[in-house]
Here is the input.
Amino acid sequence: MTTRGRLPFARPGPETPPPEGEDLSAEELTTRQAQAIPALLSQPTLQAAAHAAGVGERTLRRWLADDTNFVAAYQRARTEAMRQATARLQATAGDAVDTLRELLTLKDRPDLRARVALGILAAASKAEELDNLAARLEAVERLAAKGARPLLAALGREAFR
Here is the structure.
């Protein structure tokens, strides 16, 4: 929930997606609720978001606590905002790698070169770890698609290696 007007970033409660084929769209929100969602995403506190949306802070708190349609729409908006931010970061990854490579060539800054090299190694190691986990997850999903028996047999063999 909220603490002294801070926005709820991890709220327990009704965050499950709607049943397949059922979309809780913005049409199910009131006009004031639809205006409150961008305010929640752009303002630092509930008080500021309520003011920007033209609703009372208590009303906004009540929607976040009790209105499952509003909470679901807010969660979808937050998820989409994060997807867009991630895409923008990924678009600059090539430039970041180029910069790191340039920094590795600075002969007069061995301290900086060492930090850059360590950062590159850490990032490469993390990428390898994620690739390995993804491959293992795909294998488990393939086995699960075949049924529980092959999956349990495979997991049992792996657990004792």
User: Anything to note?
Assistant: The radius of gyration is 23 Å. The helical segments are 31-42, 46-53, 57-66, 68-91, 93-103, 110-146, 148-159.
